[in-house]
Amino acid sequence: AQSVTQLGSHVSVSEGALVLLRCNYSSSVPPYLFWYVQYPNQGLQLLLKYTSAATLVKGINGFEAEFKKSETSFHLTKPSAHMSDAAEYFCAVAGTASKLTFGTGTRLQVTL
Amino acid sequence: DTGVSQDPRHKITKRGQNVTFRCDPISEHNRLYWYRQTLGQGPEFLTYFQNEAQLEKSRLLSDRFSAERPKGSFSTLEIQRTEQGDSAMYLCASSPSGTGYTGELFFGEGSRLTVL
Predict the structure, then answer these.
(1) CB A94: neighbour CB atoms within 10 A?
(2) Which end of chain A, N or C, is surrounded by fewer C-beta atoms within 10 Å?
């Protein structure tokens, strides 16, 4: 069975600083991996996805993630944080029938 | 494309009452999923449909929960005899299926249930 682990339930960065949110996966087959963002009282919006093409994936709002098979990681980064990036971020891995298994989430706080 | 819509967005009910949530998926999507999200946690899979067939149910889906998708379009999730532990956000998602599909799910805004 596939699973993902998100290290750090809360991350705080200053506006303009690098954002790094960590995700490690476990999968018996080549994984499809996703990062979603959730704003308060809203659904989930896809940021980016890895589907076994390029290992460096670019998404919306300046986010990107790098798939590293040797480290079983898919960390999310953004060079310069903006106040509007404050939200909950979820890493997910796809199983059969596109069923997603999510991590527990990382709440990103951006301070002035 | 109107996206996935869910109704109601918020529901407050007393313990023991029944509640029903509705989900309208993106029209051309034949797969529909229900997830539950409790405070501070990631979404947890409950069940999914391909067209009108319910193909998988999580063990989280107790016998008080029932989901239907009668004509392969909208879906309903009913919770009978609600308990305080049912308080959560119920998320619906849809996707197409078929060769080459890469698994992205499209989520609705969710239905938040509060059981008093």
Answers:
(1) 24
(2) C
Please report which confidence band the pLDDT of residue B32 belongs to, taking 50, 70 and 90 as the band edges: very high
- How crowded is residue B81: how many other Cβ atoms within 10 Å of its Cβ? 10
Checking if the pLDDT of B37 tops 90, the result is yes
Interface probe for B, chosen from A98, A101, A102 (most Cβ of B below 10 Å), is A98
Q: Which residues on chain A are in Cβ contact (under 8 Å) with B101?
A: 98
Nearest CA in chain B to A98: B103
The closest CB to that of A43, out of B50, B55, B107, belongs to: B107
Phi-psi region for residue A13, left (φ > 0), alpha (ψ -120 to 50) or beta?
beta
Per-residue pLDDT of chain A (112 residues; tens, 9 = 90+): 889 999 999 999 999 999 999 999 998 888 899 999 999 878 899 999 998 878 999 999 999 999 999 999 999 999 999 999 999 999 999 888 888 999 999 999 999 9
pLDDT at residue B42 greater than cutoff 80: yes
- Which pLDDT score is estimated for B83? 96
Question: Which 8-state DSSP code applies to residue B85?
Answer: G
